[in-house]
Specification:
Chain lengths: 243, 337
């Protein structure tokens, strides 16, 4: 009997850039639901995502997306939607045109692409402004267009790199709601942030990275419970005020 | 809550401080209106996609049409500046201008002005070669400019804006990406250069009412010119795309392309004039193509350079350009070691 491989699997993966370690001996498997990847800047979140998207080759270990090495083959990307923190969009296009173009890059026909683009824009709450140029959108709306473009081909795995960064509270709430809904639909969603409160509002399943190492993986409350069993060291610094 | 406060009725703090109320009788202070907080609740229903995604060629065609259709409309396609579109149109119209002269010649009838026009623009080996490979005006003012405008931003725009990531996070591999960019550029150049050549030849036959004998006589020459035109499109596209792939600016890529075409010819010409040596024409893509083109249409070569040198030169130029192009594209959006 064979079972489907998990959406994401890393086996003892390390990646170093010369002397600097990006990811250090990380092993994990993620399949189904929303998983938050937490860690401060420089923790290795971006390196992890680059490895998943085949933009970096691991120095050691193996990366698998649906059982396939993303460095070797682009075939897993049929089932992957990626929202980058910085990836630019085609500013001159309307959201509907942009998404239709993206859907066609996945091989949909013109009619299918347009219908699907309209649906995902409706899903992220942008159907009323779908004929407006992307370049005229606010930050929150752009983030939602990015999420929509990652969803246009109905992927099984959605990777979101800091999707809430720079968004106002209203946009955050709607994006969080979209992410939760995708998780409820049985999609595998991986969302990164360096703010625990953000992730807490989306999911309880977390991965904590620090200095490239996997610190914790699992349920947020269980991890907090485990942390209580460890001794804590609290440092207090006295602020000096000049006269 | 009142939005406007009339402060003319009492003594304000400012009056007390400065001891003057002059001119304040009509003073009105406006309070910024509270921004209306709008909220919207949308029904969040996600519908899974039930269709099947198309094969590789459908995805590749989407890349191709994105670039080519953009010349006609940027709605849903690549953006080309209106001036670029206008210039391409002007170059195209100019390239088919011999058709207008042939039309005038056909109106002129036998003898006189009609015959003069027909001799100047009619079908012969030199005119077929000149339609594609003539230096002035085509390879001085038209084809290099056209190539620079079309190919300059083809990859450099993606490098500058990071939009190549849009492709590479999808099931589009780098070979397909490069091939489709190449094909898109070549088709646009081919439409202007090769299509205008075909139109010229066809219209000469139709307007002059030529028969089968003329067709049989001139068709091999036409095919030679066609091959030379295709070779020119391939070579210019290779060089242009290679330069575009190493740059983050379409301007640099375009200027560098013009510099390669004009610069190599200029240097070769100066060396020939000064030292009576034509060897440096091997560096000039235009002269290599022109030499091969002369052989293909069967006219006497005006180069001292052996034909084989030009053939090897053009093959090497294309090969090196493609190597540069593929190596640069393989590093796009990737931190590869």
């Amino acid at each position: 009997m064979t079972s489907d491989p998990p959406a994401v699997m890393l086996e003892a993966v390390s990646k170093w850039y010369g002397e600097v370690i990006g990811i250090n001996d990380v092993s994990l498997a993620i399949d189904g639901g929303v998983t938050g990847v937490l860690g401060p800047n420089g923790a290795g979140k971006s390196t992890l995502f680059k490895l998943l998207l085949g933009r970096l080759r691991p120095s050691q270990g193996a990366v698998r997306l649906f059982g396939t090495d993303p460095w070797e083959s682009t075939s897993p990307f049929r089932r992957v939607g990626y929202v980058s923190e910085t990836e630019p969009l085609y500013e001159w296009m309307t959201a509907l045109d942009f998404l239709t173009t993206m859907a066609r890059l996945h091989g949909m026909t013109r009619e299918e692409a347009k219908n699907r683009a309209e649906h995902v824009l409706d899903f992220v709450g942008l159907s009323e402004v779908r004929h407006k140029e992307v370049g005229k959108y606010s930050k929150g709306m752009r983030q939602r267009v990015k999420i929509a473009h990652a969803l246009v081909h109905d992927p099984d795995l959605i990777i979101l790199d800091e999707p809430l960064h720079g968004c106002d509270p209203l946009a955050r709430t709607s994006i969080m709601s979209v992410i939760r809904e995708l998780g409820n639909r049985g999609k595998t969603v991986i969302v990164s942030s360096h703010i625990l409160e953000e992730i807490e509002r989306i999911t309880e399943q977390i991965v904590i990275l620090h200095n490239g190492r996997l610190l914790a993986l699992g349920n947020l409350h269980a991890i907090r419970g485990l942390l209580d069993k460890h001794p804590h060291r609290i440092m207090l610094e006295k602020a000096s005020y000049g006269m | 809550m009142k939005d406007e406060l009339d402060i003319s009725g009492g003594t304000t703090r400012m009056e007390s401080a400065f001891g003057s109320g002059d001119g304040d009788e009509e003073a009105i202070a406006s309070v910024a209106q509270k921004a209306e907080v709008k909220g919207s609740i949308y029904e969040q229903t996600y519908r899974p996609w039930r269709g099947s995604l198309g094969p590789r060629w459908v995805r590749n065609y989407a890349i191709f049409r994105h670039h080519v259709y953009g010349l006609f409309t940027s709605k849903g396609h690549r953006y080309y500046h209106p001036m670029v579109r206008l210039t391409i149109l002007i170059v195209f119209l100019f390239s088919i201008s011999p058709v207008a002269m042939l039309f005038l010649a056909s109106l002129g009838g036998q003898g006189g002005f009609g015959e003069v026009l027909s001799r100047m623009w009619g079908i012969n080996r030199y005119n077929l070669w000149g339609q594609v490979l003539g230096f002035f005006p085509r390879n001085l003012c038209m084809w290099p400019l056209l190539t620079a405008l079309v190919v300059g931003g083809m990859i450099s725009d993606d490098r500058r804006n990071g939009t190549s990531a849009i492709y590479f996070s999808r099931p589009v591999n780098r070979t397909d990406y490069t091939a489709m960019k190449y094909l898109s550029s070549a088709v646009v150049l081919g439409f202007v250069i090769v299509f205008s050549y075909i139109v010229y030849y066809t219209s000469a036959i139709v307007l002059n009412g030529e028969g089968w004998a003329f067709l049989i006589d001139t068709f091999p020459i036409f095919m030679g010119g066609l091959l030379a035109g295709i070779l020119l499109v391939i070579t210019y596209t290779s060089i242009g795309l290679a330069l575009s792939s190493i740059s983050q600016s379409r301007f640099f890529a375009a200027v560098a392309f013009l510099a390669v075409i004009y610069g190599t010819k200029m240097v070769a010409f100066l060396i020939e004039s000064t030292f009576d040596s034509s060897i440096l024409y091997v560096l000039s893509p235009y002269d290599g193509l022109a030499n091969i083109g002369q052989w293909l249409v069967g006219i006497e070569s005006n180069y001292d350079l052996p034909l084989s040198f030009s053939v090897v030169s053009i093959l090497l130029i294309n090969f090196l350009s493609l190597i540069l192009l593929t190596s640069r594209v393989s590093s796009l959006e990737v931190t590869r070691e």
